[in-house]
Each structure stands twice: as C-alpha cells, then as structure tokens.
C-alpha cells in the first residue's frame, strides 16, 4: 500500500509542498501547536525549509493523532 503524503501550502508564501507524516499514527497536522484536548498521545514537531527559492523560511508542522478518531471507536 502506498504511503499517503498530503500536499500542504507554505504559510508564508503559499507554495505547495509534499508533507511526510512522521508515522501512520500521527495523521493530523497543523502549523500551530494543537490544543491539549484535541489529540491523543504526543505531538511530533517537524521542521522543514520551504522549497520556494524566494522564501526558504522554516516551516513547523505539528503531527498528532486527533481525539475525534478515538471518540468514534
């Protein structure tokens, strides 16, 4: 099965980039740290540089397991 990689947009210049989740468990993402009540377990912080040569700013992505998933179980 192919790994799903979401296409996100740089919050600074709006350039698209392919994101790589840290693992299958942490499937939700945010550019801001999520509220404690919105996730299960821990948040994994990932920093990448924008690939747009005119931007190249550091982008922080927070990967987490959304609490809504566990509410359905």
Fold and architecture overview:
The chain has 73 residues and is mainly β. It starts with 6 loop residues before the first strand and ends with a helix. The chain has one helix at 67-71, and strands at 7-9, 16-18, 28-30, 39-49, 58-66. The protein has one domain. Strand 4 (39-49) and strand 5 form a beta hairpin. It has a 3-stranded antiparallel beta sheet with strand order 3-5-4. It has a two-stranded antiparallel ribbon with strand order 1-2. It contains 1 helix and 5 strands; from the N terminus they run E-E-E-E-E-H. 7% of the residues lie in helices and 40% in strands. The chain is elongated. The longest helix has 5 residues, at 67-71.
């Amino acid at each position: 099965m192919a790994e799903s990689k979401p296409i996100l947009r740089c919050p600074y210049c709006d350039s698209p980039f392919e994101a790589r989740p840290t693992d299958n468990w942490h499937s939700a993402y945010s550019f801001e740290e999520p509220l404690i009540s919105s996730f299960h377990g821990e948040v994994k912080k990932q920093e990448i540089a924008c690939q747009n040569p005119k931007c190249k700013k550091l982008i922080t992505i927070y990967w987490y397991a959304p609490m809504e998933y566990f509410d359905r179980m």
